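Reopening closed ticket. The problem is back. First fold of the pair:
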Amino acid sequence: MIRTAIKAAKAAGKILVENYCKIESVSVKQDKSLVTEVDSACEKKIREIILAKHPDHSIVGEEEGDDHKDSDYKWIIDPLDGTHNYFFKSPIFGVSIGLAYKNEPIAGVIYLPILKELYSAERGKGCFLNGKKMLIKDKPLKESLVSFSSWYFRSNSGDAQAEALKFFSKCFEIRVNGCAVFNLAGVLKNTFGVMLSKSNKDWDVAAGVIMIKEAGGVVTDYSGIPWKLGNPNIIAGNKTCHKDALELMG
């Protein structure tokens, strides 16, 4: 099934690259986030590839919603994570395709097409970047970059700023990149010691969660409980930074 996810992610990535810097108009969703015709085209392509191989599986995606099929297998897809970056011609965006079995993430693919980085993971088989096994290394918070969700800053600016202030004197620096899959990939590459968000949807992080676990990191909610599908709150990072972040947010 991981081969299907990789094929679908690459196909969506091709569409993203072909249309990069060419988007002239966007629509506004109810939550005031932007969506382009490319988001929809990518999701349609991903669904087409998955259903051709696994017609009985269920799919939930950011643009077309949940098909509500009665299946133990559910694909959880974000065809374009970082739509705002994409529209404003920033290269920080990507594709996320997760797979859950009985509501437990078991596999995932993240593709950052401009960076030509393809991450993949299966439960019990490790996490890989372009075929190279990933290992999250422990590093103290003081020597680490910390990534926060931009959506949380935009929608809850006062609370978000107060939370960020807790980290200013404790970490090296803070980043707000506007792309969950980029942040999760950054944890895998040891660029970020930890990423935090209170505003994620399952399709933002389902693929990345299994990757962080398989690479030796820790993923919980803000209470320290292992992250589950449906929880918008997430702290993902190396063991030391994750522990320190939980204490700061407590």
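Second fold of the pair, where the issue appears:
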Amino acid sequence: MPVKTSPKYLDKFESSEPDMFHKIYFELTRPYLSGKRILNIGCWTGSYETMFEQVDSDLVSIDLNFQALQIATKSSPHSNFLAADTFKLPFKKESFDAATLFTVLEHLPIGSEEKAFKEINGVLKKGGLFFITTPNDNFIGNLFDVAYWLVGHRHYKIGNLSKMLNNCGFRVEKVLLKGRFWNNFSIVFFYLFKYLFALNIYRNKSIERILKKEYAKEGYRDIILLAIKN
């Protein structure tokens, strides 16, 4: 059943305007996705989808939050949105060329990662691409992530994540580590501005310039991973 969230909060903080991370994920994945049928899991308000008008692809996006999907549909009428569960994907076997899971894995129930990976594997064609972004299990990143301490926001080691993917019929093709001190330090202010003012600091152009410059280099905060279905 779709989840409900305050529309006022969604309109103010979670609009469909892409922040710096949506732009980064789009830039990194775009070369791989042109002309493909793609499943974006956990699309929320469709910020990633707003940039797909520039790409000749068939994008299907799912989430469980009904209000978020309403906002997404209005902002990206060129995309296909559906209320669906990651663990019970309502699609035919081997019907997608690629799947994306951007900053979603760490929010799934503890211990359910492989269940999700197997379900995603089932709807991908052989050789299908699977993109994942998630926090890296690193001392500095763990220290600055407020949600890591307060609500058990999970971080992953590359080795453990690769093992889970291998168990579920994937092979890891490429791994990037991104984000250094300023990206870590910004998390504290992200949560402060989110809950006190309902503002997303990652949409601020000045902050975006500083953080994207650092994010362009090798880092240690975030894992960006490409796996391929065997």
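Update: turned out to be a display glitch only; the data is intact. The radius of gyration is 17 Å. The beta strands are 37-41, 58-63, 80-83, 96-102, 124-135, 170-178, 222-229. Please close again.
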